[in-house]
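Class, study these two lines:
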Amino acid sequence: MYKILTLNNISPRGLDRFGHEHYEVASEISQPDAVMVRSFNMHQMEIPASLKAVGRAGAGVNNIPLDAMTERGVAVFNAPGANANAVKELVLAGMLLAARNICQAWDYTRHLEGDDATLHKQVEAGKKQFSGFELPGRTLGVVGLGAIGVLVANAARALGMNVIGFDPHITVRAAWQLDAGVQQALSVDDLIARCDMVTFHVPLNDHTRHLLNRERLHSMRDGAVVLNFAREGIVDEAAVLEALEAGKLRSYVCDFPSNNLMGKAGVIALPHLGASTQEAEENCAVMVADQLREYLEHGNVRNSVNLPEVVLPRAGKTRLAVINRNLPDMVGQISHVLGQNSINIVHMVNESRAGVAYNLIDVEDEIGEEAARAIAGIDGVLRVRVL
């Protein structure tokens, strides 16, 4: 029986993926084998020794202490692309809100008073101040061409926009999915200088914090629009507000309200709605639940942020899953212990990622507690599981 602890409300469609026969799922549970989480901050949480995996029902993992999890041999999974369409639609909505001054116009209309004839006169007199622009022919820059960035770029192309993209780490899959009309920028600076609108779809880390700063804002076209539905720290808020006040920027549309932004002209701040659709929440929960089941039951790793991807069809009687530091002779030492215990290897795979290695080893016989303890005692081994 596996125990799953939920730290946030998780879509029932996802939780239903855990069969009642082999899984216990609850918001309060002792010694969990896995955790399912959305926005709950796990950095201050005491991590139980029983924990083997964490599933983030979304893409970002800033709320999870990755280094600590890796040191404990805990696999961390996310759901890349599961909420991509929801975010894409909100980005398109943000572009239209900025281009057509919809928020300002709606606010103007909702404060009108008088009979219909009076309202009509006020509407006709006031509408000129909300004149906007159309998207076809405008140039959108997309920084980050992952699951969301590709959808945004393709949708903008379908709307008749010119699109310039930049992503030095674009995957082959993303490149195949990208509209052939999307132009390639040489750098972030090159992209920003050529666009009427810029949208960011990158994770927040030391390399992307304040990716849009004063210098880059200065190089943008006058009257440009900045959209940030990725992470709050990617854009330097103070620099953006200066650019708005100076008339350099037309609008800043984001999903991260703050006291600095509240009530500022040209700012459209939404209450973190990016993945707030029923479909996105269900997709993320189902995707992560399936990944946790596959890992707990068979040791297979898909969409982990701290382990290499390893998927191995079952062969033999027993499966051994070992997480270790990527050091010389680790596989040899593990194999030696198995040999000493007369355990024959049927099939195995070893992959590494960022200093961590993962082994799936199928053997002909059962693996006893003594052999498992001996492997766990090898210097550099972080976690051993017999499946």
Summary: The two ends are 13 Å apart (CA to CA).
